[in-house]
């Protein structure tokens, strides 16, 4: 499978509109960017493409990276930066299956699948497929398993994507704190490529009103506030999950400029063949 990182930024992206911080300035100077989150997975055997999350930057990403339009998609959760690009398929795709979790979110009273169906009821090409977490479904010839993660107050899911023929495996954490449930960790383990939410370095937890949590043995917070992993948390999870290769994604412009483009922080347009 060919994995293209279409969007590696957090909800404001890098550069952020109207921002002249050192990191946004450095991004402009280097000609790199981190648009809102989306990952494109192409099954080269079947020539089908699976899109993970609909970035508000959908149109721009597909023009920029020239990847095939998706045959199917997965939505991890209903935050703006992962869902609100879905309207872009209007008059672009004739049909699209969208897979999303079927568990009711106590916060919204709906599942992710239910929210997608209700919010986009006017989009005729869509077929929403309610999907049970921790059960594997075949999409675009790939075995896809949604796994619950921790992104309060909303339900959110990571996923594993495995090629049943080659055994190649991609895992994504989704937006999550370090508190990923054990049964989800088991599904995400031993990937050829892990994409992990590492929104900021742990050093920035002192600036979050809720601080950090899930400290490691050295007292370094692995969760920033309540919703996302720190860089250190994401790398710690990657080590525990025994990932062959790890890229950090969902990155904020709050990374200091001298750390923002260091390995293994991803930028848009990276491609991996697994
Ligand atoms: Zn900035
Ligand atoms: Zn989110
Ligand atoms: Zn997000």
Automatic annotation (TrEMBL):
This is ATP-binding protein. It comes from Natrinema ejinorense. Gene3D superfamilies: Ribonuclease Z/Hydroxyacylglutathione hydrolase-like. It comes from the Archaea. Residues 35-228 form the Metallo-beta-lactamase domain. GO terms for molecular function: ATP binding. SMART domains: Lactamase_B. PANTHER family: ATP-BINDING PROTEIN PHNP, HYDROLASE C777.06C-RELATED-RELATED. Keywords: ATP-binding, Nucleotide-binding.
């Amino acid at each position: 499978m060919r994995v293209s990182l279409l969007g590696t930024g957090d909800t404001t992206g890098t550069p952020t509109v109207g921002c002249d911080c050192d990191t946004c300035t450095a991004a402009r100077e280097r000609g790199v960017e981190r648009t809102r989150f989306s990952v494109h997975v192409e099954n080269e055997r079947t020539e089908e493409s699976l899109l993970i999350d609909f970035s508000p930057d959908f149109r721009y990403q597909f023009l920029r990276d020239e990847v095939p339009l998706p045959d199917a998609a997965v939505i991890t959760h209903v935050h703006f930066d992962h869902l609100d690009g879905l309207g872009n398929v209007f008059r672009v795709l004739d049909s699209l299956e969208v897979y999303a979790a079927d568990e009711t979110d106590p916060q919204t009273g709906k599942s992710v699948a239910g929210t997608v169906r209700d919010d986009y009821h006017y989009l005729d090409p869509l077929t929403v497929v309610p999907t049970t977490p921790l059960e594997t479904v075949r999409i675009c010839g790939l075995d896809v398993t949604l796994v619950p993660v921790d992104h309060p107050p909303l339900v959110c899911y990571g996923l594993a994507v495995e090629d049943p023929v080659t055994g190649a495996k991609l895992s994504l954490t989704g937006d999550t704190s370090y508190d990923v449930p054990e049964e989800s960790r088991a599904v995400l383990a031993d990937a050829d490529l892990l994409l992990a939410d590492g929104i900021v370095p742990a050093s920035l937890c002192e600036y979050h009103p809720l601080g950090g949590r899930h400290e490691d043995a050295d007292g370094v917070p692995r969760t920033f506030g309540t919703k996302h992993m720190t860089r250190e948390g994401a790398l710690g999870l990657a080590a525990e999950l025994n990932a062959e290769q790890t890229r950090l994604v969902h990155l904020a412009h709050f990374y200091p400029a001298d750390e923002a483009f260091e390995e293994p922080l991803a930028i848009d347009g990276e491609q991996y063949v697994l």
